[in-house]
Amino acid sequence: MKNHVLRPLFVVMGIVALILLARLVVVPKDFGAHERGYMYGWHRKSDEQVWKDFKVKYQGKEYCQGCHTDKYDAINKTPHKIIQCENCHGPAVDHPSDPPKLEIDRSRAQCLRCHYPLPYPTSGRSKIRGIDPDKHNPDVECSNCHNPHNPMGGLK
Amino acid sequence: MISRRNFLKTTAAGIAGITLPLAAFEIVDPRKLMAQEAKNPAKVRWVFLVDTYKCVGCGLCVKACKQENEIPYDANVTRTWVERYVLTKDGEISADTPKGARDGFTNSKIDLGQGKFKDIKKEDIDKAYFVPKLCNQCDNPPCVQVCPVGATYQTEDGVVLVDRKWCIGCGYCIMGCPYGVRFFHPVHHTAEKCNFCYHRISKGMKTACVDACPFGARLIGNIKDHNDPVTKIIMNERVGVLKEEYGTKPQVFYVGLSREVK
Question: What distance in Å separates the CA atoms of residue B204 and residue B175, rounded to the nearest whole number?
Answer without folding.
Answer: 33
